[in-house]
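Ticket #4471: complex job returned nothing on first submit. Input attached below:
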Amino acid sequence: MPIVLATTSRRTAVIAGLSLFAGAALVPVSVMQAQRDTSFAVARDAVVDVTVRGGRVVVRGTDGSTGTVRGGDGQYRLRATGVGISLTNRDGDIDSHGNATSRPQSGGNGDAPLVLELPRNVRLVLSTLSADVEVTDISGSVEVRTRSGAVTLEKVGGRLIVETISGEVRLTDGVGTARVSTVSGDVTMHGVREEVHITTTSGDLRLALARATRVEAQTVSGDVRVEGRLMPDAQVQVITHSGDIVLRSTDDIRGTLQFSTFNGELSAGGQLILLPGSSTTSRPGRASQRYQLGSGGAARLVLSTFSGDVRLMRGAQP
Amino acid sequence: MTEFTKAPAVPPAPCERFEAQVGEWCGRALPAHEEEWMRHHHESCASCAQLRREFAALIAEARALPPLSPPRDLWSSIEARLDAPVIAFDGRPPLTVLTRRRTSSVRTLALAATVLVAVSSGVTWHIARRTQNATGPSNAVPQTSTAITPAPTASTAGIDDADVDRGALAWATVVMSNTAVARPVTRRTANGGAGADLANGVYDQEIQALRSIVDDRFAELDSVTVRALKANLAIIDAAIRDSRRALARDPRSGLLATQLDRSLEAKLALLRQVALL
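Support reply: We reran it on our side without changes. The output follows.
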């Protein structure tokens, strides 16, 4: 059976150029056909595109310029795409948004996880239907799209994008900039640095900040808990409809708080000073208010709910 | 042993061939001989002629929109994966495209969904901006002040409220599942009236337009996913009802108007996400 290389006739020239740019990460035929544990050359900045229907996928970053793939019952197809590597499992193909484009051919959802070891600088693009995904030690950008698979990330240093319907998202040891979208999946992130943008409908969010400069979180019914250390000029915006918001800072937050709610309640463990121009209506609890936090400073907090309560706390979690 | 296969060549039927290429034809991206074939088929097939008219209308509507921020590499992602004919790695003649018929159909659907999402997003943005221009900048917060805590000291009184508000606006980025389109938040005027009616109409139209696509997608998706999506749409619908009910009792509340807009935006975002699944 031939190994195939994905390209297009009308884009041949472009892809040829990109191949050179990417270091022509082409796969030695003999190696791929001879071994179940396949090794292949990967340029350090190549795009590695993994499309898997179900089961479990484990991706680990390594030194060097060689990738390996093993497990997954051998039911996968590996292609060089001109800019990198594309790996598709044979348990039914799916397209870029996780739609099945063919029926499963075998019981490829066996227990054996599909394990990829890749140069850690690659750009990883992973699409699954229900497969659980674990990504460790990848410093290039990582994009994961799944419908119901759980997504676990550790030591992911580049730009991170995760989109899922019902899968849970768990990150440890921080990222640069993260954009996470779920419908019902919970999101737990530890060691968040720089910027994080999260949207969900009913998933609960729990963020442990390390040196975050900007946090944007929006839910409808999901609760949001943000704790850790904010940069002095951090901007935090959390919006929910009925979800509760808890913000616990290990240090004093100095800045302003803009708090809006219809019938939620605000409680704070520190000094809050209502600023001029703040407003309330005559009806109890229906308010949009602006406070000074601590002795004032550059931090900006915008917290808004319809019926969710908001609690501001100081100090490490007991 | 890792297995590698090639798909058998499946010559597309004329209408499928037309459907697969109509987007490129409308964009004048086809070679001359293909253009000639498309023109000939278009003249002899009523359904394909109708398809072409619909595509042309969509493109015309899209062109009439104001400039939009491009969605984050959405199309490149779709194109790279759906339109990748396969050639032999070892120098043999090019193979045919894997699952050609399927990818053509998916590509057409994806293109249609993308165009619809772009059009619907643009319409909301355009009308919202027009409404804002017509009514002037709305201050969603009634300007009455009630002292709850001691007055600020002189050193803090200089904080510019408008700065805070601008900051909040600057953050307001509508995040769609597969596309993040930065645009002004659709804000209805605090005192309701024509602006609110217009905003409601725009949202209703967008939701209705996406709803039919979403219903089709539900028929194709697995039941677990559909249940999860429907449950979350119900959560958003409940939030919309809450906001509408509260706003009906206090129509001058900018806070409630903003809450309603957020809930409607959340519903649109989810519908767009499903449409693009």
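Confidence is low (pLDDT under 50) at residues 1-35, 92-98, 102-109, 280-285 of chain A. Closing as resolved unless it happens again.
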